[in-house]
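Re: the 273-residue chain
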Amino acid sequence: MTSVPFYRSWNDSAFRQNAIARAVHATRDAAFKLAGVCAALLAAAGFLARGPETIPPSQTPASAVAPVAWLEIARPTPVYVLAAPQMTHESFTYQARRHAPGGGREDTLTFGDFSNPRIFLRLAVYRHGAEKPVEDAPLFVEMARRAAPLGLSIVHASFEPDQPTRFGALEMAALTLSAGPLERQSKRENCRGFRLVQMASGVTIAGLACAGADQTLGATDMACLVNRLDLVSPGDDRALRIFFAGSPRNPTACGSDPASQPAPKITKRGHRG
């Protein structure tokens, strides 16, 4: 075999390129092996945490998809009525929604409009279902939650003693509410937030109210309005009938007996007839 001097082989371009390529491959393989050894050592020592796993959409757990809890009832049959003389000439809407998994129902009676300087009242009656109702939220949180869908915010809140009603103790807070963007907000100061929770009977009564420009709306006035709430069509809900039957009206508490006042006629669309 004939040997070729190194200097003559290195001067050959083909030989030189082949030698450089082999050296590059050898260096790269050595680097990969070194990196693998280092990673194994770090993992064994607990320095490398396992990265998050991506779950394909088809394998996403059902619990990760939150169902729509509340569904609006398109044409609700009114269950409650509020026979209040001061509300007779105000615009009125009746809305209701149902908790899809639990079956609870919330009916909302709205009198007037916040943007109007006249009296405004939004009263909701929540008939608890199998779902777990929120019973320990602070009153301020409850009022803020009810104000938000109306585009309202609470500017000031002053909590007051509970007021007795025929349904039980009514939590009360004097509020200043505002609506609209910050640069042109409209405020109403003589407002109140209220809540009454009867877990044993499965009923929550809560809402917001504001007095008209030439009116006052004290804590006792708010309690009187709640006292005028009554059933109009409870259906087969026997427990709800018992709850209202066991809460007799007090004619002397609010001046005149609400039963003597004509109840507003309500259409199936939820508007005053």
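Residues 35-66, 255-273 have pLDDT under 50 and may be disordered.
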